[in-house]
């Protein structure tokens, strides 16, 4: 799929609810949720999803991964959390356009969002090439970028990032690093 966006979502809810979501995802039926239109950053409505890459029940959560065209599947995840009365944490990345992010949802509402758009002046594509990454996790991308761009005096920020417990915390630290790299406070 051209300009695909990788989506990884952890759903939280009742066991039966998670099993129902998993069953549909395992059949590559994201379209069957009745809300499979992404709000593409391109401005086009999009119903293009790749196959479900994997699903995994882990304790009180369900982990799901799939690709979508052009942009994250935000509208679909909002709809699923509303219709299935659950919560979700959504990590996405579109390396071709240089953006990735984290969104949390509860009952169809966006609760928290961190998105990083790394533009050409930050030499994002050069960073990926230098790291040998054509696809990696958001953690890999952020850490590699910070290691390449930050001064030695900012090593404490990298250490803080590595010790962060959640993706949410990592995104907050990364945003601080971007400000430093761009010359802000």
Describe what you observe in this structure.
There is one protein chain. This protein has 185 residues and is α+β, with helices and mostly antiparallel strands. It has 2 domains: 4-116, Alpha-Beta Plaits, CATH 3.30.70.1270; 119-181, no CATH class. The protein is built from 6 helices and 8 strands, in the order βαββββαβββαααα. Strands 4-5-1-6-7-8 form a 6-stranded antiparallel β-sheet, sandwiched between helices. The protein has a two-stranded antiparallel ribbon with strand order 2-3. Helix 5 runs antiparallel to helix 6 (167-181).
Short description:
By secondary structure, the protein is an alpha+beta fold. It contains six helices and eight strands. It is elongated and about 50 Å long.
- The CATH superfamily label of the largest domain reads Api92-like domains
Contiguous helical run count = 6
The helix/strand class is alpha+beta
How many strands, what sense, and barrel or not for the largest sheet? 6 strands, antiparallel
* CATH A-level architecture of the largest domain: 2-Layer Sandwich
Dominant shape = elongated
Radius of gyration from CA coordinates: 17 Å
Uncertain spans: 37-47, 130-135
Q: Compute the number of structural domains.
A: 2
Strand order of the largest sheet: 4-5-1-6-7-8
**Rounded mean pLDDT score:** 75
CATH topology of the largest domain: Alpha-Beta Plaits
Span between termini = 39 Å
SSE topology string: EHEEEEHEEEHHHH
């Amino acid at each position: 799929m051209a300009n695909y966006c990788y989506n990884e979502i952890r759903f939280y809810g009742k066991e039966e609810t998670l099993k129902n979501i998993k069953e549909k995802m395992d059949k590559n039926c994201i379209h069957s949720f009745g809300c499979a239109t992404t709000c593409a950053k391109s401005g086009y409505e999009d119903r293009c999803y790749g196959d479900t890459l994997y699903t995994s029940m882990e304790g009180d959560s369900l982990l799901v991964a799939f690709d979508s065209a052009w942009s994250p599947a935000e509208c679909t995840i909002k709809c699923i959390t509303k219709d299935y009365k659950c919560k979700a944490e959504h990590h996405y990345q579109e390396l071709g356009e240089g953006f990735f992010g984290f969104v949390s949802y509860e009952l169809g509402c966006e609760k928290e969002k961190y998105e990083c758009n790394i533009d050409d002046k930050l030499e994002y594509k050069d960073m990926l090439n230098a790291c040998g990454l054509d696809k990696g996790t958001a953690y890999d991308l952020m850490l590699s970028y910070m290691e390449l761009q930050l001064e030695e005096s900012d090593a404490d920020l990298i250490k803080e990032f590595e010790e962060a417990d959640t993706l949410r915390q990592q995104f907050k630290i990364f945003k601080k690093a971007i400000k430093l790299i761009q010359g802000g406070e």
